[in-house]
Amino acid sequence: MSHQGGPGLAATFGARRLSSRLAITADLVATSAVHLGGGEAGLTDAAIIRDARSGRPLLPGPTLAGALRASLERRRPEGSRRLFGGAEDSDAPSGLLTFDAIATGESLEVRDGVAISPSTGTAAEHAKYDFEVLAPGTVFPLRVELEITERDDETQLLGLLLASVADLESGDLRLGVRRSRGLGAFRAKNWRARRWDLTGSAGWLDYLGADAEAPVPSALSSFPTLALALGFSQPSNPGEGEAAGPRCHLTLTLRSTGGVLVRQASLGEADYIQFQSGQGPVVPGTSLAGVLRNRSGMIARLVRHGQQDAEAWVSYLFGSPRASRAPTASRVRCSDGRLENGKPEVTHRIRIDRFTGGAADTALFAEEPLFGAQLRVDLTLDARPDKEAGQRFWEPALGLLLLAVRDLLDGDLPVGGTSSVGRGFFHGTANLALGTAKHVLQPGVRPPEEVIKLIRKFHEAPEMGEADANA
Fold it and tell me: In angstroms, rounded to a whole number, what is the distance separating the alpha carbons of residues 99 and 30?
């Protein structure tokens, strides 16, 4: 196995000569609900994928590898091929091996979804569905291995590896589906690393004697970051090479004014309670994104009546549906919002027969909305895209989004159900971070001049076509 003495088989057959190998592990903790789709159909419309042997939830290695590669390409476009393979001048395989991860436990939830009709703002007919999610706190044991050849610069590869996991350490990496609607957020902790020197037979024997399933012993000390676990004291700046243009981030701090109820069926005193996730009440990101999308469409149809391009602006922000000719992902990411300090109260209601005006038979039901709850939500508009068309419309589209958010802050945009009886309305403020600039949006207060300029750009923007929306 020694690399000494002549070209040998490696040179003859073009094999890669390894100089070292690293095994890295960490605990990958879900900080939001997660839907890893692809499971067999069962009691829900969309089941999570499971390991065939254990039956536990599975995070496929290619899913993680794709997310890490995308994270690295956003920071170091030129380094992606070096770490993940596919260099232009060769068919070099990836030097980073990502393994499937099986959840150590399971806390399953079922969420309902419904498509909203843009014309009525209500649920579209025959458009309800449900899907499985894993609750926040689910842990997947992450394992990757890095192969370093004699032609590689090990320090450079480790710098690229640190850049690829930067989002994972900060909690910005999202996996699975419905990532723009608050699902799939992960944060890694308890990093461990082990390195083998493969330039001699002793290193190879040590590597071959390691446990194939767990090459990094749990007895090794763990660290909060991968850099510390590697002893990599001066990594290259992971933030170098960020995508062009700033990213917009909004933090909404709201309080309900008349109770809030995103319905979830219950077997308790009330028939319906506020939706729960991770042992607490939340407003799902899907609900908030849905009402913002619908309100953005209403605003765009009013402002852009002459150009007749309202749907293109909505698709630019929130994506186009899968049934469309050119489906696209949402540029707006909306987190689940946890409701805190709310007071639950059971109220009894009865359905009215619209034809007789009297009570419908067997239609008495009880609800338990939350009153006075505080809600904190994070909204992010992706960084300005590289394509010229996408750059041209990014700021006007942000102006449209801010108009919809303004309605939410002013208490004019209900979230959840039973808005006809005054529920789902909020008042609050928004902290806007646009690049290095920071602004505060408050109800009843004139917006900052920078925000007014963005709104004016939306009014004055040229007509947007379908191709521009997908740029």
Answer: 18
C-alpha 170, offset from chain centre: 13
pLDDT of residue 278: 74
- Taking the C-alpha atoms of residue 408 and residue 415, their distance in angstroms, rounded to an integer, is 9
- Residues 6+ positions from 397 with CB-CB distance below 8 Å: 313, 316, 317, 331, 381, 458
The residues that bridge with 27 in the sheet, in sequence order, are 141, 189
CA-to-CA distance for 164 and 69, rounded, in angstroms? 7
Nearest residue to 401 (alpha-carbon basis) of 471, 439, 444, 458: 458
The β-bridge partners of 440 are 431
Reported as a single tens digit per residue, the pLDDT across 107-163 is 887 877 666 665 555 556 656 667 888 888 899 999 999 999 888 888 888 999 999
Q: What is the Cα 254 distance to its own chain's centre? A: 22
Return the percent helix, strand and coil in the chain, to nearest 5.
Answer: 30, 30, 40
CB 32 within 8 A of CB 131: no
CA atoms of 426 and 79, how far apart (whole Å): 46
Decide: helix, strand or coil at residue 338: strand
Amino acid at 381: L
Q: Is 5 exposed, middle or buried (0-12, 13-18, 19+ CB in 10 A)?
A: exposed
Burial of 227 (0-12, 13-18, 19+ CB in 10 A): buried
Residue 94: half-sphere exposure toward Cβ, Cα within 13 Å: 16
Q: Which residues, 6 or more positions from 91, have their beta carbon under 8 angstroms from its beta carbon?
A: none
Closest CA to 46 of 133, 140, 138: 133
The size of the chain, in residues, is: 471
Torsion of CA 57, 36, 96, 387, to 10 degrees: -170
Rounded-to-integer distance, Cα 93 and Cα 23, Å: 18
CA angle, corner 132, sides to 326 and 64, nearest 5?
65
Return the bridge partners of 379, or none.
250, 334
pTM for the whole structure: 0.76
Q: What pLDDT score was predicted for residue 268?
A: 78
Backbone torsions φ then ψ of 316, nearest 5 degrees: -60, -40
Question: Residue 335 corresponds to which tokens in the numbers above?
Answer: 């987190």
Residue whose C-alpha is closest to residue 253's, from 137, 370, 345, 341? 341
Cβ atoms within 10 Å of 439's Cβ, excluding its own: 16
Q: Please name each of the domains of the chain with its CATH number.
A: 18-212+226-230 (3.30.70.1890), 248-469 (3.30.70)
Partners of 370 in the beta sheet? 260, 344
* 331-to-160, 270, 285, 320, 462 alpha-carbon distances in Å: 26, 38, 14, 11, 20
Query: Which residues does residue 256 pair with via DSSP β-bridges, in sequence order?
Result: 426
Concatenating the DSSP letter of every residue in 256-278 gives ESS-B--EEE-SSSSSEEE-B-S
